[in-house]
Amino acid sequence: MIKKYSLGGLALLLVSPLTVAKTIYADVQVTPLKPLKNHTVWVRANQNTPKYPIALAKSGVRGCVVYSFDVDQHGDMNNIELMAAVPSRGLAKETKKLLKSWHWQVAEGQQAALEHKVIRLDFCIGGDSEDQAQQQCIAQSKMNCAV
C-alpha cells in the first residue's frame, strides 16, 4: 500500500510541471545567399520551415548561422563548412545536424550538376504568437550574422 502512494505521488510531481508549461513560439528562416533562388540547380525536397532543434529551444538559444556546402550531381551534400555563427557555441553543431537531414531535388527546368551553395539560417524564439516569432525572425535575417 505504501508503495502505491509513493509511486502515485511521483506521478503527480512529474505531471504537474507539464500541465503548467508555457507555450514558447519559435521560427526558423532559411535564406539562400548563393546562388540566388531563381538561378539554383538544386532545391530542398521539403520546402517547409525546418523544425527548431529541441536542444536549442530548451536552452533558449537564438541566433544565426551561415554555411557553405556543395550539392553533387546525385543530390548529396559535401564539404559542409561553417562560415559564421552567432552565438558560436551550440548553434553550429545543432544546425549542421539539421542540414545533414535535408534532401535535395533538381529544380524545375534544370539538369543535375554540382552546385556550391551558401545559406543562412536564423533561429528565433519569443513573442506571444507564431506570427510574432516569424516577424522577429524576418527582421533578424536582415541583420549581420557575424560577431
Average pLDDT over all residues: 82
Largest sheet: 4 strands, antiparallel
Q: In order across it, which strands form the biggest sheet? A: 1-6-3-4
Q: What pattern of helices and strands is seen along the backbone?
A: HEEHEEHEEH
What are the SSEs and their pairings?
Blueprint: H1 2-19, E1 26-34, E2 42-44, H2 54-59, E3 63-71, E4 77-86, H3 91-100, E5 104-106, E6 115-125, H4 130-140
Task: Provide a quick synopsis of the model.
By secondary structure, the chain is α+β, with helices and mostly antiparallel strands.
Could you walk me through the main structural features you see in this protein, from its secondary elements to its overall organization?
The protein has helices at residues 2-19, 54-59, 91-100, 130-140; strands spanning 26-34, 42-44, 63-71, 77-86, 104-106, 115-125. With 147 residues, it is α+β, with helices and mostly antiparallel strands. Strand 3 and strand 4 form a beta hairpin. The N and C termini lie far apart (60 Å). The model is unreliable at 1-16 (pLDDT under 50).
What are the defining features of this structure?
alpha+beta, 31% strand, two-stranded antiparallel ribbon, 4-stranded antiparallel beta sheet, 147 residues, globular
